[in-house]
From TrEMBL:
One of its GO terms (cellular component) is cytoplasm. Gene3D superfamilies: Zn peptidases (3.40.630.10). PANTHER family: PEPTIDASE M20, XAA-ARG DIPEPTIDASE. The keyword Cytoplasm does not apply. GO terms for molecular function: dipeptidase activity; para-aminobenzoyl-glutamate hydrolase activity. It comes from the Bacteria. GO terms for biological process: folic acid catabolic process. Keywords: Hydrolase. This is Amidohydrolase. Residues 229-257 are annotated as: Disordered. The keyword Transport does not apply.
Length: 257
């Protein structure tokens, strides 16, 4: 794991390596344990960068085994590709966002969001504002405006999703909608607490309308569909899809006795 952490100086700024010790081998501190299990999550903005970084992590593990005269087994349990963009569909969805406007938040929604923000780290709020191209000192509890496309702040790096693999098979577009207070940290109790709020419901329903309107455009405008297909085909010609899952990998399903 020390070797993997040394990789951080030799990888792209947009790449990530996360780890968790699932089995440290034992509880006795005065002996070198005979085994250990560690799980890594390797992430990158582009699929080929992720595969290359994962290979380097694997080689570090093999090198550590050689150095300690032990053996190592590597097992891939999941893998997801990056989302392949589609400008024709993105432009169509942006037009629907601008036509429908922001979600219909009211003062009670904003008051709730301010109460949530009172529990946040101010730096998280400022970072969230900068991520979407707004000044860090903006006094806005909810994102109740339509952001420009493309974002003046550059690409927004989001979490991993298997929608990415779908996007390499068919033209795909996603919408980002406001469903929580600005500055909410992912995987936090604050995110969970807002999950059934009026803010979350209004944002979710509003984005569903945008998706439905975009689907209607695709069905009613053959030229839009043709542009989306041609853009998708051009991207695949430049970079064919490679599954991040090895061909001999099977789902980690345990048979019932």
């Amino acid at each position: 794991n020390i070797g993997v952490n040394y990789l951080r100086e030799h990888m792209l700024p947009s790449s990530r390596i996360h780890y968790a010790y699932q089995d440290a081998g034992g509880a006795a501190p005065n002996v070198v344990q005979s085994r250990t299990v560690i799980r890594y999550t390797v992430r990158a903005a582009e699929l080929d960068d992720m595969l290359a970084l994962a290979q380097r992590v694997r080689r570090v593990a093999e090198g550590a085994a050689l150095m300690t005269e032990t053996t190592v087994t590597c097992q891939v349990v999941s893998g997801m590709a990056n989302l392949l963009g589609n400008p024709p569909l993105e432009a169509a969805m942006q037009a629907n966002l601008e036509r429908l406007g922001p979600p219909p938040f009211d003062e009670s929604d904003r008051a709730f969001a301010r109460d949530m923000q009172a529990t946040f780290n101010p730096e998280d709020i400022a970072a969230a504002l900068r991520q979407v191209g707004l000044p860090a000192d903006t006094d806005r509890p909810l994102c109740d405006a339509i952001l420009p496309y493309p974002s003046p702040a550059g690409p927004i790096l989001l979490g991993s999703t298997d929608v990415g693999d779908v996007s390499w098979v068919v033209p795909t577009v996603q919408a980002l909608g406001a469903t929580c207070a600005i500055g909410t940290t992912l995987h936090s109790w604050q995110m969970t607490a807002q999950g059934k709020s009026s803010v979350a419901h209004k944002g979710m329903v509003h984005v569903a309308k945008v998706m439905a309107a975009t689907a209607t455009d695709i069905l009613s405008d053959p030229a839009l569909l043709d542009r989306a297909k041609r853009d998708h085909a051009d991207r695949l010609r430049r970079q064919p899809y490679v599954s991040p899952m090895p061909p001999d990998t099977h789902p980690p399903i345990q048979a019932r006795p």
